[in-house]
C-alpha cells in the first residue's frame, strides 16, 4: 500500500493549527501513535530517547525506537547534554523519521543533574551548538521543546537564538522548571509567537479540542501539542469530547498488532 503524507513543515504551511501528540515516556510508542493518527492527530512524537544510549547500543535502539511505513509524519525526540551525541543520534535515526526534536524541557531532577532537559534553557549556547551540529548532519527539520525561563526576557532570547541557527520550530510549555500543577502561562507562549518568525507550538494543559482551539485563538500559535489530554482521550483531536467505544476497540487492535504481533497473526 502506498502511504502518502505531508512533512511537518508542509503541515505548518498548510494548516492554521497543527495538532501534535507529545513525546511521552513509556506511552507515545508505535501502537499509541498509530491510534491517535486515526483520530485527527497530524504529527506524532516518540518518547524522549537518551542520545548517548541510542548511539552506543543497538539493543537500546531496537528497544527505544520502533516505527513502520504508516507511522508518518514522525518526529523523534532526543535528550542530550552535548552536541556530538545529539548530532550522532540524529544522523542514525534520520532515514527513518521526518523530524528531530531536542528536549529542553524535562524538569526531572535526574535530567537537570545530567545537564540535559530543562537544564539547557539556562545554557542557550549549548542549545545553539546542538541545533547547528544537528542541522549539519541531516536535511530533516530540527526543533526544540522548552519550558519557560524564570525571566521572560531569557525565554525570548533563547527562542531568538534558536531561530537564528535555523531551528525549524519551537514548542513552548508555559511553565518554568519548578512549576508542576500551576496554571500554564499562555502569555509567554503568545509573546514567543510574536517575537519569532518560525512556527511556534503551544504545550501544557491541552486536554480537549476546545482547549486547543482556545490557546490557538489567544496566542495565534501554529500548532498545539497535547500529552495527558491524549492519554485520557486519544480521540480528542477528532472532535470526540470523550473516548468513543470504537477508539477503545482500535487501541486493543493496535496493541495486538504492534505489541503482540505473533499472537495477533495467530488470531487473524
> β content, as a range?
5-15%
Measured between the Cα atoms of the first and last residue, the distance is 19 Å
Helix content class: 40-55%
Mean pLDDT: 95
Strand segment tally: 9
* Low-confidence residue ranges: none
What topology, given as strand order, has the largest sheet?
Answer: 1-2-4-5-6-7-8-9
The major sheet is characterized as: 8 strands, parallel, barrel
Task: Decide which structural class fits the backbone.
Answer: alpha/beta
Q: Could you give the topology of this structure?
A:
Layout lengths: L7 H7 L3 E4 L8 H8 L5 E3 L3 E2 H6 L1 H7 L9 E6 L3 H11 L5 E6 L4 H5 L10 H12 L6 E6 L4 H13 L5 E4 L12 H10 L4 E4 L5 H11 L3 E4 L1 H5 L12 H14 L2 H7 L1
How does this model look, in words?
- The protein is of the alpha/beta class.
- It is built from 13 helices and nine strands.
- It has helices spanning 8-14, 30-37, 51-56, 58-64, 83-93, 109-113, 124-135, 152-164, 186-195, 209-219, 228-232, 245-258, 261-267, and strands at residues 18-21, 43-45, 49-50, 74-79, 99-104, 142-147, 170-173, 200-203, 223-226.
- Strands 1-2-4-5-6-7-8-9 form an eight-stranded parallel β-barrel, surrounded by seven helices.
- α10 (209-219) links the parallel β8 (200-203) and β9 (223-226).
- α5 packs parallel to α7 and α12 (245-258) packs across α13.
- The longest helix is centred in the last third of the chain and has 14 residues, at 245-258.
- The protein is globular, with a radius of gyration of 18 Å.
- The relative contact order is 0.14.
- The mean pLDDT is 95.
Amino acid at each position: 500500500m502506498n502511504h502518502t503524507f505531508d512533512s511537518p513543515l508542509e503541515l505548518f504551511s498548510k494548516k492554521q493549527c497543527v495538532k501534535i501528540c507529545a513525546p511521552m515516556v513509556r506511552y507515545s510508542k508505535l501502537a499509541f501513535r498509530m491510534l491517535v493518527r486515526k483520530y485527527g492527530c497530524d504529527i506524532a512524537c516518540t518518547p524522549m530517547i537518551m542520545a548517548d544510549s541510542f548511539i552506543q547500543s543497538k539493543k537500546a535502539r531496537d528497544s527505544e525506537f520502533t516505527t513502520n511505513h504508516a507511522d508518518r509524519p514522525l518526529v523523534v525526540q532526543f535528550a542530550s547534554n552535548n552536541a556530538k551525541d545529539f548530532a550522532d543520534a540524529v544522523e542514525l535515526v534520520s532515514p527513518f523519521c521526518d523530524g528531530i526534536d531536542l528536549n529542553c524541557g524535562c524538569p526531572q531532577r535526574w535530567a537537570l543533574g545530567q545537564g540535559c532537559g530543562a537544564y539547557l534553557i539556562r545554557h542557550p549556547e549549548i542549545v545553539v551548538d546542538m541545533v547547528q551540529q544537528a542541522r549539519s548532519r541531516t536535511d530533516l527539520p530540527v526543533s526544540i521543546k522548552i519550558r519557560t525561563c524564570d525571566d521572560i526576557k531569557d525565554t525570548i532570547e533563547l527562542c531568538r537564538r534558536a531561530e537564528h541557527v535555523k531551528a525549524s520550530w519551537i514548542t513552548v510549555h508555559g511553565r518554568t522548571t519548578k512549576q508542576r500543577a500551576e496554571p500554564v502561562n499562555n502569555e509567554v507562549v503568545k509573546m514567543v509567537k510574536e517575537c519569532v518568525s518560525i512556527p511556534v507550538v503551544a504545550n501544557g494543559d491541552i486536554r480537549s479540542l476546545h482547549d486547543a482551539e482556545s490557546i490557538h485563538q489567544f496566542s495565534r500559535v501554529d500548532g498545539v501539542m497535547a500529552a495527558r489530554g491524549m492519554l485520557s482521550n486519544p480521540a480528542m483531536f477528532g472532535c470526540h469530547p470523550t473516548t468513543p467505544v470504537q477508539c477503545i476497540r482500535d487501541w486493543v487492535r493496535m496493541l495486538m498488532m504492534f505489541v503482540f504481533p505473533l499472537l495477533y497473526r495467530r488470531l487473524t
